[in-house]
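User: Here's a chain of 226 residues. Predict its fold as tokens.
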Amino acid sequence: MLKMTLLTGRVAPLPGSARLSGIAKSPVDRTLQLGPTGLEGDEQADLRVHGGIEKAVHHYPREHYADWQADLGPLPLLAAPGAFGENISTLGLIETSVAVGDIFRMGSALVQVSQGRQPCWKLTQRLGVPDMARRVQGSGRTGWYYRVLEPGLVAPEDALELVERIAPDWSLHRIWHAFYIDRMNAAELRGIADLEVLAENWRRYAQNRLDSGRIEDWTRRLKGSA
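Assistant: Prediction complete.
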């Protein structure tokens, strides 16, 4: 069982921009309801690409903060959890040790790893680091999302406990490597396309590459507009 920091955030303008985002998260000190689309009091500005059933809860490893400080220097936002828009921060879980389909008990709720995080340009805007979204994507330090299998109550003092592993061979790191490093490995893409516990849109990415023989264009997601 792992101790976790629980975070939420309201929609607000991004630094230096009129564009709205819910990426800024702060620790909470009370019990929250976790429903099918996320935690009580948590908001997303653009529901076309953020939030929803397959991205109800975002988990970002606390370990990665030290790595980013080593890469970027002591940015103020890296002094505490919440810089990457996460709802859950822990020590002890990273993308190499977490697999799609892993089921966790979180308070009285039950959640399941649904997909990795695809970083967008709002990370660049929030952290003020040029090309930050592309850096996150290229590093593999992306974090991941949960779908909610059983709604319930979650408190800051609750522990995160692994209950079941559905597809232990399919770590988040393996899927990241197939999508962003070894990008046209047909065997890996077929496996991902057939991985039923993976979010449907990620399975489609894999199938589309197999069908088209092309890599999708990430420019709009990574660069966007401020």
